[in-house]
Amino acid sequence: MNRDSSDEDDDRESFLEQNDRKHPHPNPQHQPSPGRSLSSSLHVEDLRTFGNGVRRRFSNLNLKRYLFAVFLPLFILLLYFSTDFRTLFSSKFPVLNLDPLSDRMRESELRALYLLRQQQSSLLSLWNHSSSNSSSAPEPTFDSIQSALLPLISLNKQIEQVLLSPHNSPTNSTALSSDSDPSATAPALFSTCQSLHRRLPGRKTMDWKPRPNKFLFAICLSGQMSNHLICLEKHMFFAALLNRVLVFPSSRFDYHYSRVLDIDHINTCLGSKLVLNFEEFEEMRKNRLRIDKFICYFSAPTPCYVDEEHVKKLKALGISVGSKLESPWKEDIKKPSKRTAQEVVAKFSSDDDVIAIGDVFYADVETEWLMQPGGPLAHKCKTLIEPSRLITLTAQRFIQTFLGKNFIALHFRRHGFLKFCNAKKPSCFYPIPQAASCIDRLIERANAPVIYLSTDAAESETNLLQSLLVVNGKTIPLVKRPPPNSAEKWDALLYRHHLEDDPQVEAMLDKSICAMSSVFIGAAGSTFTEDILRLRKDWDSASSCDEYLCQGELPDFKAEDE
């Protein structure tokens, strides 16, 4: 206290003295006497003035420091709570990316907003369409409603993925994708593909009641195994119409059918022994191996579609031919006529013990009756001509090992198919990018995580196809049957019965896997595909999404003819 009062007194005195020096008193009595020495004035008065100035400056400096120390923290706090530094720095210094997650989130939000507006527009369009047609249009089906909603559901999934994309990182991307994908927990919700149960209780059938010792000798020569199986199915229909037992061809003349088909299963389904393999027929007839009469279904390009080489093969089996190859009508395989069951009975009935009608793969007889689920014959099974039990079990084990319940099967025929398809109008051979686009659309409809690939394509083509199969940012794997591996046990049954490495067994295995798929994509014009579709229809595994590859589209590029 004393120090402060003294300082104030000194400052006051210094202030008064300075005023006295600046403003001399007018009264001469107050002026200093001339007798006061100059040295005395300098030593006393100037020394006092110097001391007072030093004290005054020291006091002002302390006051400023005190005020600075008090107000600086207050200023910093005020600035901190009143200023958004992220906005400040991002606006003035856009080059500095202080928060990349924030930037990605903003971009994702803008993208999601765009998709939401697109979804809103689609919903309004659907609403307006349903409102305008409510009085005149028929009531929409469940499938049509699902088809209309699927693109909107897909948009919703895209929005979800866009919003989650900023958070994806190598450490959490897998968890986010699995947790955020609704299809992982409820796949049926997003699939518009429905199972088709086409078997009707009142289907048209006929009983097969053969006459004793009357046989129809099957001859199938056109195409590969699939053509021959269709030919055999038609032969069974003809044998039932003509009241004869059917004899399958010898493996020395045709395929080894007992390796891919179960003939005992056919007879069990029919309830009687109506189909014989060649060895059984040979044992039954012994020294009477003879085709008594050829009644050829086709007259052109050659009778019975059998050439001299195949006649020689028949004779090499010990089968004699008792008549010329003749046809009761004019019928060309290039332009087959529609025929009825009554016409067949009228033209091909005979009292001869063993007859042959030649290759009937191209025959057009009662097509709707023949193609109905289960076929035209009365039996107690789903179908008569189907893969053997060993092949069917092996197919099931492969599916359990590699595919699971929900998968698409693709028959992607390429070898020799370019020229074949380009000869047709329109062509059925598609560039791989276009094919991949068609498959992608069907994947989204079926919501299947994997595709089984049955193909004869080169690896260069399948590799390109695989690289293009991406749906909602996910690559859809193509699965083919792997080469034999002793560590894998799914094909152990084939090895145990010495059926491995048989190309016909492998082809039938492919058919079985494709026939069990959730959705099937076939190759138009291929009998391999048609036989798979037949099995799917008979096994009740057909889907509303089954279709030919790029069905309804033209190839976006077609080579010129030779």
From TrEMBL:
<keyword id="KW-0325">Glycoprotein</keyword>
<dbReference type="GO" id="GO:0046922">
    <property type="term" value="F:peptide-O-fucosyltransferase activity"/>
</dbReference>
<feature type="transmembrane region" description="Helical">
    <location>
        <begin position="66"/>
        <end position="83"/>
    </location>
</feature>
<dbReference type="GO" id="GO:0006004">
    <property type="term" value="P:fucose metabolic process"/>
</dbReference>
<keyword id="KW-0328">Glycosyltransferase</keyword>
<keyword id="KW-1133">Transmembrane helix</keyword>
<feature type="compositionally biased region" description="Acidic residues">
    <location>
        <begin position="1"/>
        <end position="12"/>
    </location>
</feature>
<keyword id="KW-0294">Fucose metabolism</keyword>
<keyword id="KW-0812">Transmembrane</keyword>
<keyword id="KW-0119">Carbohydrate metabolism</keyword>
<dbReference type="GO" id="GO:0016020">
    <property type="term" value="C:membrane"/>
</dbReference>
<keyword id="KW-0472">Membrane</keyword>
<dbReference type="InterPro" id="IPR045130">
    <property type="entry name" value="OFUT2-like"/>
</dbReference>
<comment type="similarity">
    <text>Belongs to the glycosyltransferase GT106 family.</text>
</comment>
<feature type="region of interest" description="Disordered">
    <location>
        <begin position="1"/>
        <end position="39"/>
    </location>
</feature>
<protein>
    <recommendedName>
        <fullName>O-fucosyltransferase family protein</fullName>
    </recommendedName>
</protein>
<keyword id="KW-0808">Transferase</keyword>
